[in-house]
Design a protein that fits this description.
single chain; 68 residues; three-stranded antiparallel beta sheet; 6% helix; 18% strand; iron-sulfur; iron; MitoNEET_CISD; 2 iron, 2 sulfur cluster binding
C-alpha cells in the first residue's frame, strides 16, 4: 500500500476496516477524529456509532458479502 492509498476492507460478520489517510465527516460536515486505521459499524448496534465496538459478535451479525 502506498502512502496515499486508502483501503476499505469488509470483514466477514464484522465491520468495515478503513486504512489510510481519510477524513470522516458527519451529515453536517463536522470531522470525526480518526487514526490511520479504524473500523466502522455494519451491524447498527454499536454504542460508539459510526465506529465498531465489537457488538456485532453479541448480536450475531451475519454478512459475508463477496465482490462479483
Amino acid at each position: 500500500m502506498t502512502m496515499a492509498e486508502v483501503r476499505i476492507r469488509l470483514r466477514d460478520n464484522g465491520p468495515l476496516v478503513v486504512t489510510g489517510p481519510v477524513e470522516l465527516v458527519d451529515a453536517q460536515g463536522q470531522a470525526f477524529v480518526v487514526e490511520d486505521s479504524f473500523a466502522l459499524c455494519r451491524c447498527g448496534q454499536s454504542g460508539k456509532k459510526p465506529f465498531c465496538d465489537g457488538t456485532h459478535r453479541t448480536v450475531e451479525f451475519q454478512d459475508q458479502s463477496r465482490a462479483k
